[in-house]
Each structure stands twice: as C-alpha cells, then as structure tokens.
Amino acid sequence: MHVCGYPASAVARLLRAPQVACGHDHSLVVSSDGEVFSFGRGNLGQLGQGQMGMRAVPARVCLPPPPSQSVSTQSSSTVSAERVVHVAGGLFHSLAVTDAGDLFSWGSGTNGRLGHGDTIMQLRPRRVAALQSPRIVHASAGCGHSLAVSDKGELFSWGQGHNGRLGHGNQETKMSPALVQGLLGHVIVRAFAGWEHSVALTREGVLYAFGAGDHGALAQAWEEPATPARVCALGDDGACDVAAGAEHTLVRTRAADVVAFEWGLGSQPGARRAGHKMLPLHVFKAV
C-alpha cells in the first residue's frame, strides 16, 4: 500500500514523528527512527536534498557519515549511523542535532548563519566543525542567526549580529559559533532564535533575552540589549519552556500558565504596552 507515492510504513513513521519544525516556507520532520524529512520551499538549499526548488511531499535528508567512516563505505542514499533527535528551521536555513551531539546545518550561508566560517550555500547537511568538541543537545535557527546549547549548559551563537541578537555585547556578525560569555555560570537548557531576538532558559527556570525588542518580544524596559538580560516580568513563577516567534515570545511557566510578550497589533490582540515595555499577556492555562 502506498500513500502519496510513499510506502505506508514510511508514512506511519512520519505520523509518529517525535519532533516537527517549521521555517519560513519549509518544514522538517524527525521520524520515529531518527531520520529527517523535509518539504516546502528549497530555493536556497534549506531542504537539504542536494538541489534547489519546491518539494510538495516529504523527502529524506541524508546526513554525511561520521568523520571516522570512509565516504566510500556509505553512499549518499544510505541512512546515517547517527540518529537525529532535534531539528530547527530558520528563514532560509536548517539545523539538525544528532544523538551523538553533532550539529549539522544547511541552506543559505548569508551572514555566516550556518557556522562554517564562510557564507557558502550548503545544499546538503554539513557538520559544524567548530562544535565537534562540545556535545550539542539543542539548537535553534532564526532569521539570520543560529543558537546551540551544549550538554554543559553553554550557549553558542553565530550569524547576523544586528540588534545584538547574538548576545556578545555588540552587533558584529559571527561566521563561526562563539560562546555567549554573559551566560557563563548559568546552566542553559534551551535557547530559541526569533527573527531578530534570542531567548535562553536556565535549569532553574530563569529566562534571559537579548536582541531586538522594539515590539515587546523581550519583555524588557529597553529595546535592544546586546548582552543577555534577565526577564523579570514573569515574577516568581519561573519558566519551564519557551518559544520565540518573529516578533514575539511565548513562555510556559511552572505554574502552568502560558504568557506572551508580543506586538499587540493585527493578529496578536490584547497585549498591553507600558512605555517601551510589553507587559505579559496571559494566553491560557496549560493542561
């Protein structure tokens, strides 16, 4: 039996997908056996399938073999020995983290967002060599920048640095991953890249934000902190999860509330502004 040209067994693996990520015009799916599938717009290589163009149905993304494994022993059509555990989609690029702690990137290389030390487009996944020593457990892709969290709780950022979104205290572009010094001493467990801002969550549930906050995305009294600044608007609740959109941030607190810091116009009604600071908007109680 086939569904959309795929064996039913392959479709079943995607239906049980442990993780899905969406970029601007493309989507990524991690199957139940650790493979990556992509579909949507691939005009800048963001699908990772070796060519540019649109794909209406999911197609598998093949990771390269580990450095210790000879390319001759593994063809491009075979399954990688590493299982993917996490994917992230940005504007025109994609990231994947494996169970071995490796980070792969592909798509547009503009502003160094892929972390390879150059601006070259990658049509297939390429291992980020600068992060082979720390074991990566989480990653996020923004408009022109990327974030990665190591198993030691370190945060790395690279790509477009405008608005201070990289958290290094300036607006410089980084072609390769750089450690965010302002968060040393904190154990970061997750980090998310918005269009022009970034947020990082610590093991204790403290949220830090940096980058463009002119639409209230950072919930700060100032608009563009270039180094990580603690988000105090959550009070004593603490956060257990966070997500960054284009110009807003969603936080799930330990009290099971979901709150938003956002631009309260158009499709995002109800947000309340106090000077340059957006007050948190209670969205709903998480079940």
TrEMBL record:
Source species, domain of life: Eukaryota
RCC repeat feature ranges: 34-100, 101-152, 153-204, 205-255
Classification via Pfam families: RCC1
Keywords: Repeat
4Fe-4S found in the keyword field: no
Record's protein name: Uncharacterized protein
Native source organism of the sequence: Chrysotila carterae (Marine alga)
